[in-house]
Amino acid sequence: MIPSPEDIRLSALYSLGLLDTPASESFDRITRMASQIFDLPIAAISLTDTDRQWFKSRVGVEHQSIPRERAPCAEVAEKSTMLVIPDMAEDAYYSESNLGKSGVRFCAGAPLTTREGHGLGALCVLGLEPRRANARELAALEDLAAMVMAQIELQHAYGRIDPVSGLPNRTQFFEDLSDLIKEPAKHLGRRGILVDLAEARQLDDLSRVLGPTRIDATVREAAQRLRAAMDFKKNLYHVSATQFAFIEELGNSATHFPPNLGELLAELEDASSFTILMTPAIGVAVIASDDTPEDILRAMSSAARDARLTPTKVEVYSKSSDDRHQRSFRLLQDFDNALKSNDQLSLVFQPRVNLANDRCIGAEVLLRWQHPVLGSISPGEFAPIIEQSPYITKMTAWVVDAALRQSSLWKASGIHIPLSVNISAANLEEVDFVQKIVLALLRHGIVPEMLELEVTESAIMKNAANCLAKLSALSEGGIRLSIDDFGTGYSSLSYLQKLPTTVVKIDQSFIHDLNLGHRQRNLVHSMIKLSQDLGYQVVAEGVETLEVADILKTMGCDDAQGYLFAKPLRPAEFESWFWSDRGTVYRPLKAIS
Known about the structure:
This protein has 593 residues and is an alpha/beta fold. The chain has three domains: 5-10 and 17-157, GAF domain (Beta-Lactamase), CATH 3.30.450; 170-322, Reverse transcriptase/Diguanylate cyclase domain (Alpha-Beta Plaits, 2-Layer Sandwich), CATH 3.30.70.270; 387-566, TIM Barrel (Alpha-Beta Barrel), CATH 3.20.20.450. The chain is built from 23 helices and 20 strands. The strands form three sheets. Strands 12-13-15-16-17-18-19-20 form an eight-stranded mixed beta barrel, surrounded by four helices. A six-stranded antiparallel sheet has the order 3-2-1-6-5-4. Pfam families: EAL, GAF, GGDEF. Residues 328-582 form the EAL domain. One of its GO terms (molecular function) is cyclic-guanylate-specific phosphodiesterase activity. This is EAL domain-containing protein.
């Protein structure tokens, strides 16, 4: 639904919040000046609503408003031009108006127009006798109308109106919401609605291609469509670059949502102006008396983010979901302190066993975090958060340094095995990543062959050309390279022949189901055979039973790691395990029945 010019004009009027507000001396002063300049008994600042002319200020008028029909000030607002009626009794149209019938003969009105060209109403002077207005008087009336608009901007818009949409901004939203919360009778049974036009990533892409001017035009169109969808009966606020909010009654339930706004989401996506942006979403949050405006807006934003994961793109605030996001944010904030502390981060080591001779031939390095307040944090929880943050490069540097320090200690005690460390796409994008690794090896006196770096297929494919160059430089320096979680990426076997890696680690999701049937076995066997034909050493991850180990051995798989051999072990535990019988021969393999 495309709003009409009148809809847009009314939206501009309503967004200023002027209608039905108390009298103001700053406006009355201008009205009195108009009356004095024209030497007329009646003057008014008249705002044109849907069906009435409401007077923000008036001299010589008893009524607060008059009907809009055939009101001269309505014509001024609609056309945004000066209107002069020398004798209303002689005017065929206005002689039958309310003013004409009440005895008004003369009328002159100057438009009250916003910077965007929307007519709000008029500054009018009226007389009970016919007369004419000279150029000096009309120029003065226009100047006074401009003073009215300046006062409107000063009192009702300065710092409270978004310059792009012309709607009340977040400051005004917080103030109005605070007033609402203070009165339980008003806020009970109400909820906040937030319409989020686009994700941050989408905005970045659009801005990069088309520039901010196009985004502004898109936001303005969205504001107009939203106002039209709500029939201009609710206050709409522009609370961030692409987010709009309003308050409404709950209706039947907190989860019910007006169908017209659900339809609006589809309209926004289909509109030509939005084809590049958009996955609009709506977040809903019930207003409680103990909430602050900031809490309510954050809850709506959280719900809108969750809504993007739903088919309807509409979601009600969930405390449990919000708690998860809050925890993730806290972990991200606290990780920097963890890196600087001496007792929060530590390493564990999971052995890698050669299936042909049953000996430990290496270990994978895994990071652990003991939070001082939250306790032990699972790597499955914190690793994905850190990998998407700037801390990922610091985390990898910490792990590499700690792993090489441990390797140096073990070398002195006779444990001389390669250690493998996981790296991410962000590490391969570091300009000096290769130099950092080389310097770390030199600092701890470890030969390159004792360090293996594991990287996933998906990490390589984010910037294949750059990653290949970095991996080649590492390989030429003698550092072992492996493809981690093989089979889960989208490049699969096609890149094996191009990568300077020597080890393939088959993801545990394939290994767990190895004993369930021939299809699973054939798939893993094919992965092992093809990888070895290309010159790769193959490692099976997640081996937990002797039966699976037996199957892998008959397939010719080189190495394996998993709970069958050992869980990830702390350094002292690993040393004990390594020097025990389990360290050299994990257990005789049972024959396949």
